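Work Package 3 (structural annotation) set out to generate three-dimensional models for the target panel prioritized at the project kickoff. During this period the team completed the workflow that converts sequence records into discrete structure tokens, so that structures can be stored uniformly alongside our sequence database. As a representative example, we reproduce one entry of 226 residues exactly as it appears in the project archive.
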Amino acid sequence: MKKLLTLIVLLAGLATSASALEYEPESGLTFQGLFGLNMSNFRGSFIDTSVKPSFNAGVRGEYMLPNCKGVFVNFGLNYTMKGAKSDAPGGTLKARAGYVEIPLHVGYRYNFSDLLGVYADFGPYFALGVNGKSILNFDDDTIDDISMRFFRKTNGSFGDIQRFDSGLGCRVGAEYDNHHSLTFGFDWGLTDMFTDKFRKSYSLSNPTPLDKMKNFNASITYGYRF
């Protein structure tokens, strides 16, 4: 009886190994088109902010490493809109900042069958601010709204946001039929958004040091693999 049980366990192990090899992702380079929803915010105590919805779009290349059983590296070129909103006294502040972003991740993929696979990846991102603005909408209709552009040298604080941003990101998701994917992602900015010039001018009129303000973004993205 013991020998029979041992034989069954060995056969089950061989079957599992054969199945894993059968559905192991093929090595090589592929590309995906991406479009999704962002839920972004600013981290820091400069102002009390809340999540603001926006969008992301781009392309991502993925290279499955040969003989690595599901390990891959990927890189992308995305346009992503980040920001936040805040209920200020007498009005509402809405901020939007658009970045061209390059993520560089390493990940692992496991295929349950020839139709369904799951994956996760992690790594840094680097971004350059290209457009955006902040708008202060007053509750009093007799007062004109105030608008300031991001990444422009102005007297407003949101005109003194630096263009460069970097941080860490992770993604988890599933792919169907080697084409359609749904991904949940999180990005934590590590770069202070304020310029040194703004920090110096702020310290001249405020005794309390200004905390660093950083981007945070959660996203859900649909992808199509070509």
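Residues 7-20 have pLDDT under 50 and may be disordered.
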